[in-house]
Amino acid sequence: MVEKLGIKVIKSGVDFAEVSRKTVEMDITVKVAKGPRRESTIDTGINFFNHMIEMLSYYTELNIDVKVVVPRFKLAHSMVEDTGLTMGRAFYEIAKNRMVETGIRGFGFAQCAMDEAFTQARVSFEGRVGCWIIRDARRFGMVEDVQEEFMESFFQGFTQRMVLTLQLDLIRGDDPHHLWECAFRSFGEAMRQLLQPDPFRKGGVAGIKGTLD
Known about the structure:
With 213 residues, this protein is α+β, with helices and mostly antiparallel strands.
């Protein structure tokens, strides 16, 4: 069934999800699955973004495959944000299924240091959407082959479709590559914690209301 925003859940379970999003501008497929670590197949059309999804896969300890097909114009903002929307829905499916079958921790916190760069991430899955990117590190404009603000758009899209609260602190960094890689590392580790099975919370989320609505 195709839902709003052109999103279609192809299949999902406690350890896997395959989701697509097709619009006039983009055709995106995201697969997320638990299993032995393997090389991900990632083709977004943006080299640095591909690398960041590799980081996310490594730190969430989930295999992530992404394919972005652009039928008309190569619009980097749409490519990044729409991938975030699609991937967020894939993570939502896994979290929702685990919530019922195994319970999940429902929240996570992580910090990362990479050379001079330092970031922190806090996430909570309880039916509340919010994306706060708090920046003390200076702005650079570009990071490798993509504009920095498009990296922010990924997190905005992800949180919107996962129904996730994210606070991401970009604290220090003199190199934009280091800063954003740090951010994806800390986000990935926080998400790994969020998805951990927790039988005590089976049937519920991070809060006690017992529903994502």
